[in-house]
Each structure stands twice: as C-alpha cells, then as structure tokens.
Amino acid sequence: MKARLRRLVGLISILAVLTMAPSACGDSEADVELVLDYLPGGIHAGIYSALGEGYFADNNINIDIQSPTSSADTLRLVLSGQASFGIAPIADVANLVAQGEDVQVFMALEQVPLAALMSTEAIGVTNPSQLTGATIGVTGIPSDEAVAKTILAASGVDPNSVEFITIGFDAVGNLLGQNVDAAIGFWSAEAVVLELEGETPFVFRPDEYGAPPYPELVVFASTDTIKNRSGVVQRFYDSLAEGYAFALANQEAAIQHLADNAEGIDTFFSNAEFDKVEPFFLGPNGTFGEISDAGIRDYLNWAASVGILESVPENFVTTKFLP
User: Fold this and answer.
1) Which terminus of the chain faces fewer neighbouring Cβ atoms within 10 Å, N or C?
2) How far apart are CA 195 and CA 200, in angstroms?
3) What does the mean pLDDT of the chain come to?
4) Are both 107 and 24 inside the same structural domain?
5) Taking the alpha carbons of 113, 71, 277, 49 in that order, is the dihedral positive or negative?
C-alpha cells in the first residue's frame, strides 16, 4: 500500500511539473530520431505512450523510433549524427566518454541495474554463496564477469574458484538446460521468460551485493545536441515524462500503444516485463528520468575499481533538463 502511495505521489509530481512547464506551441517542429537499446518491449511502453497519446506531437516533436541491431549500433548512430538520442547501458556510454567521445547522459530510463546473476530453483542455487566452484555463463561483454565477481566476493565466494564460459545471449536456454549453475542476464527479460517457462528464477542484483545503485539504461545525446538543441532535448524529456506518467497509470493502454506502434510485440510478455520494472521507473524523489551527479559519480568510481571502465570519465551527465 505504501509503495502504491509513493508511486501515486510521484505521478502527481510529474504531472504538476508538466502542467507548469511552458507551452511548446511557440517552438518549431523538430525531427528527432531515437534509437532504442534493443527490440521494443514492456520497458519502452512509456515511449510508445508518448507517441500514441500525442505527447511528442504536442511538444512539436516528429519522432522516429528505431530498433538497433546491437547496442554498438545505437552508439554508432548517435556518434555519427544519424540519430538525435540513444538508449544504451550506462557502462557502454561511460566507456565512450572515457575514450574522449563527445556524448552526455541527460536522463535515466529506470533506476536499478537490470543485468544480474541468475539461477533457478531446478538448479538448486538460491543464494550466490552456493557458487563456489560453479560454472557461470556470461554473454562475452567484459562487464559481465566484473558484475558476477562483485556478487560472488560479497557472498564469501572466491571468484577465482568459478569457471566463466561464454554463452552469448542465451541465459534462458542454458539455465533451463542446466548447462551452467548461474548466468548473467537481464532480470527484466530473461527472468520473465524463465517464469513463463514454468521455472522459478533467483535473481542476484549487483546493487544488493556491494555495488552502488545505478540505472542500467540511460538516454544520451552528443554534447553538440545538448548545447545547441537544448530546447528540443527539453521537449523530448517532457514528452517522455508524460508518456511514462500515462503508462504507470494506464498499463494496459500503454502496452497497447506499444503493440500498435512496434512490430512483433507479445503483449503478455510485455505486460510481465513492465510489471517487473514498474517499481523502478521513478527515482527517489518520485521523478521519471531522475539522475544525480553524486549517484553517478559513485557508480563510475565503482565501475572503474572493478574493471568495467578503464577510467572515470568527466562531464558524463547533465541534470539541467530534469525538474
């Protein structure tokens, strides 16, 4: 009950800010390309609600939502100027900035890590402390092992005792087949599939085992866009805030907007995914997109200390578009 009241207060605060915001009617229409982090799903329902409910149009934004072939594709399109905005894992964007690329994060899509270590009831691993000498599946992305080692070490397991094997993005198949004792995957997606397959997943998030809390997915743009199209960035953020306020208050309609405007949507799965992430769309202050300099600095320092980042980037985030 308390959680629902907090979310209601958050929605009211979002709507109050939007009501007080200056009208976009005096702004010229802007063509905006948004590249998602992956195929559209329940986590993106607020974006498609902003489209379906006309919030982008109300803010004079002509939006083109694109699906990437990979997160590297999202980064490439924004860097090359072929897309205005991108959604990508925070580590990928941080590494770009650390390498000297001129991009900046201006909002979070959600508030907690989605990549986590997972096992199942059938395998019998209900706590990471049971993973001494285990076989752990990773996608091949360097951050996977760092995340797993953080969780293992915090659970009293020597990370050197486990064997990491590369399984690509088939955590579900390998967990169902019991080819591994645990695997790295997105609990917002793979854990949902496991449940739909009749399995009981156990999820171990890094922020519950020593890592600071951080958003997995962030929205970013080139520093040129941030500087020279700040009005468009603000209107884009305002549209998304409205879209997610609608989605949190009208989940069934939001998933229908997703199905109406994106191909290949399984509404049952998308609703289940939205259910998983729903408690984490709003930040501690009840604001969608919330991101803080201090919180991100904690993440960057931790990520560099465990080898996810080669160095700590400067000027990684701007909060000027948030209420």
Assistant:
1) N
2) 6
3) 92
4) yes
5) positive
d(CA 49, CA 239): 9
Give tens-digit pLDDT for 172-231.
999 999 999 999 999 999 999 999 999 999 999 999 999 999 999 999 999 999 999 999
Regarding whether 219 and 203 lie in a shared domain, the answer is: no
- How much is the average pLDDT of 159-184? 97
DSSP-based three-state secondary structure for 86: strand
Q: Is the pLDDT of residue 21 over 90?
A: no
**Cβ atoms of 222 and 97 closer than 8 Å:** no
Residue 155 domain boundaries: 115-208
Question: How confident is residue 15, by pLDDT bands cut at 50, 70 and 90?
Answer: very low
Give pairs for 25-31: CB < 8 Å, separation 24+.
25/60, 27/59, 27/60, 27/231, 27/235, 28/60, 29/60, 29/61, 29/62, 30/60, 30/61, 30/62, 30/229, 30/232, 30/235, 31/62, 31/64
What's the pLDDT at 25?
45
Point out the domain boundary residue: 208, 228, 253. Answer: 208
- Measured CA to CA, the distance from residue 95 to residue 26 in angstroms comes to 38
What is the chain's Cα-based Rg? 20
Task: Say which CATH number the domain at 256 has.
Answer: 3.40.190.10
Q: What is the pLDDT of residue 7?
A: 52
- Do 33 and 121 share a structural domain? no
For range 30-54, the mean pLDDT: 97
Query: Do 129 and 204 share a domain, yes or no?
Result: yes
Q: Is residue 37 part of a domain?
A: yes
The answer to which of 45-49, 70-74, 215-219 has the lowest mean pLDDT is 70-74
157 and 234 part of one domain: no
Query: Strand (E) positions, the chain?
Result: 30-35, 61-66, 85-89, 103-108, 115-120, 135-138, 163-166, 182-186, 201-204, 217-222
Burial class (CB in 10 A: 0-12, 13-18, 19+), 199: middle
DSSP class of 108 = E
Distance, C-alpha 212 to centroid of its chain: 15
